[in-house]
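haha ok so turns out i had the wrong file open the whole time. this is the CORRECT one, sorry everyone. sequence first:
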Amino acid sequence: MTMLTEPLRLHHKHCDDLFADAEAAAAERNWPQCQELLSRLHDAIEDHFRTEETVLFPAFEAATGMTGGPTQMMRIEHARMRELLGQMQSALSAQAADVFAGAAETLLIFMQQHNMKEENILYPMCDRSLAEQAADLAAQLRNSLEPGCATKK
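then structure:
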């Protein structure tokens, strides 16, 4: 079976790498580099969330009729992660390394749990429910994400 969600799985890894680099720059108090990396992380995460919320989730909801279930929970979690990214940005602006580290630790745990739910529960449900549309949807997912990020292994 074609895994139409593969571009999103690969993009999780890209976001994880950006996160680790931004966190390392903050720990070194390299604020200009941290700003660059956090900005790239923010853009990547927003691309990811937008792609799920405008391409994958609506297709899944239309195919299954489930609008109040797993996709609703993922949208709620996306909002929480946006808040945590905002806290990291505020800490960065204040060059408050300890506050940045605290918000980053919370976001990291939240992202790990969120990604596990997507990769082990929601994405397999999407792959099964949307199998007939897999090629078209996978192309839409790849095209919606940052160039190159959803095709690297």
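The chain has one domain: 6-144.
again sry for the mixup
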